[in-house]
Amino acid sequence: MNCFINTNAQSSFIQNIYARNCLNLDGHWHYIIDPFETGFRGFQGAKADENNKLSGYFENKQQQSKSELVEYSFKKSPTLDVPGDWNSQDEKLLYYEGTIWYEHDFDFHPQSNKRYFLRFNAINYDAYVSLNDKKLGVHAGGFTPFEFEVTKLLNAGNNFIIIKVNNTRKKENVPTDNFDWWNYGGITRDVLLAEMPATFIKDYKIQLAKNDLKKIEGYVQLDGANLSQQIKINIPEAGLQTTVTTDANGKAAFSIPVKKLSYWSPENPKRYHVAISSGTDSVNDEIGFRTIEVNGSNILLNGKTVFLRGIALHDENPFIPGRPRNISDCRMLLNWAKELNCNFVRLAHYPHNEEEAHLADSMGLLLWEEVPVYWTIDWTNDSTLHNAEHQITDLIQRDKNRASVIVWSIGNETPNIPEREKFMEAMADTAHALDNTRLVSAALLTRTSGDTIFVDDALGKKLDVVSFNEYYGWYTGGMPWEINKFNFKIDYEKPVIISELGAAALGGFHADSATRFSEEYQQSVYQHQIQLISKIKNLRGMTPWILVDFRSPKRPEPEFQNGWNHKGLISETGQKKKAFFVLQDFYKQKKEEDDLQEIK
Ligand code: GCB
Asked: Which atom of ligand 1 is the closest one to the Cα of 413?
């Protein structure tokens, strides 16, 4: 059974964790590979973990005398870097799917008037967490943050964390057991110990009101015993401030009229310093203010039509190859997108690093963020839906103050079958209910009959933007130069984004444009795709698949694939393929057209 058992984890977490006073617990963590789950069940398979007491293997046990039999040792075991997936750090773990135990010691001296939260920014997939041999709780889902309050469990002096991580793919998980990327396991993002005042600002939202350039709106949420306080929100550079009082639940909503603001956009990624303070706490953020809306078949950014010159991206650094280990890895990827003349990036197919959205804010890149509701999810399983809803909720909770984020994507290529409807409609409703200031979409599938490509998935009615993936010239539709015969029939009078198109090419392999896996073939697909999709009257953006080659166990062909999906415009060695320049030129032209439009 898969369920999102979250005994002690908060259903929400501290907003803007990187602006807080944190001890960073990254570093070299000991690990033990445990394919038989011996540490969990005990040596004879007896039950472990009852009444919050850990037994056997979990404990940070040392041999006390030379005669004592202890058949494991964290201390003597090798280490893995945290953050980092395990697959890329130890050759024998490249394909590993199962359990690994992590252990990490740290020295700490808690203060008596503070509260402490142990924060994990992502662990893939199931995490079972303990501190000083006391169970904190469990978490399911590989890409969203979670935390535990540990105020009462910290020692003065030595402390240790033990985590059992398991990345076994399961049908009922989100994503399910079949997906086209590497199943990187482990503690893939930062581990932080946050020190907070007894009553603190746990959450806030500060954004322009829906479609309103003249009003900043939001709320502040306190956590602690002293819930009724005065809260000040100050944006000094804009000359804006307000004071509100929190209610008995610690929440206060506010609204600030705006006269003059420099609005955030890719051309002007202006962020304002925002200070939020209560009697007992204060936190700062850098926030950009912009509106995003759909008007008929247009997408309007700050009231003006925008064309989304995008590209899709996995959360992977090809040079490791593995999950990015720090923000510089993400910066490298986003810089490549900039070089391609993009103003938009699709962070596929799951939530990427929290800091990446801050980076996109500062670089002026619009973002599509997504949850891994991918392909054949276990549609009728209630706990799977609960898990998926939890993931979209956590993502929105985490990134709701980021100007860069304009689209929440609730899934990718989910088949148009009746069992799916309830699930996906619930996802769309959840995303809309949590955030009415952004657009909700999903990467849909199409169907072809004769020379017509039909976009008629019923889910389209629930989406603000109709997006779909199509691989004409690669998986279907004949040779690249034959695809222009197709025409689109799209059932919705809404803006359209092509969320994927593409073809694979092995970087450096040259042949004619009829030869699969050659750069020339890929180049030809891009040239003809640009003509094909230009037929779509409501086309307002595109995110071709994909910026960089990425690893996939579903690509075993030894000569051209060798465990890689080579649809990148940039190879796994960082080499730009011919198609990169086709798209770069097209986007340059699009940008010039848009700039001209602006002048008129
Ligand atoms: C798709 C999927 C993407 C795959 C891609 C491919 O439609 O959305 O995850 O990697 O096709 O390369 O086939």
From this structure: 8
Copy the structure tokens of residue 225: 């015993």
**56-87 pLDDT, tens per residue?**
456 777 788 999 988 888 999 999 999 999 99
Give me ligand 1 centre to Cα 181, in Å. 9
In order of 356, 375, 534, the CA distances from 372 in angstroms are: 18, 9, 29
Ligand 1 atom at shortest distance from the alpha carbon of 374: 8
Which segments within 57-178 are labelled E, that is strand?
A: 79-82, 99-108, 114-120, 123-124, 126-131, 134-140, 146-149, 157-166
- Separation of alpha carbons 60 and 45, rounded Å: 20
Q: Which residues contact residue 499 at a Cβ distance below 8 angstroms, ignoring those fewer than 6 apart?
A: 312, 346, 368, 409, 412, 441, 443, 444, 467, 468, 469, 542, 543
* Ligand 1 pocket, Cβ-based, cut-off 6 angstroms: 180, 349, 412-413, 469, 500, 545, 565, 567
For ligand 1, atom 13: residue with the closest CA: 180
Spacing, Cα 473 to ligand 1 middle (Å): 14
Q: What is the mean pLDDT of the segment spanning 297-310?
A: 98
Name the residue among 398, 416, 422 with its Cα closest to residue 408: 398
Q: How far apart (Å, rounded) are the C-alpha atoms in residues 598 and 600?
A: 6
53 forms bridges with which residues in the sheet? 50, 134
Give residue-wise pLDDT tens across range 392-425: 999 999 999 999 999 999 999 999 999 999 999 9
Contacts of 557 (CB under 8 A, 6+ apart): none
Q: What confidence tens digit (pLDDT) does each residue in 224-263 have? A: 999 999 999 999 999 999 999 999 999 999 999 999 999 9
| Interval between CA 180 and ligand 1 midpoint (Å) | 6
Whole-number pLDDT of residue 190? 98
Report the separation in Å between the CA atom of 12 and the middle of ligand 1, taken as the mean of its atom positions: 32
Q: What's the gap in Å between 474 CA and the centre of ligand 1?
A: 11
pLDDT of residue 545: 98
- Dig out the tokens for 515 from the structure: 């030869």
DSSP string, 258-286: -S------SS----EEEEEE-SS-EEEEE
* CA 22 to mean position of chain CA atoms: 22
pLDDT band at 594 (very low <50, low <70, confident <90, very high): confident
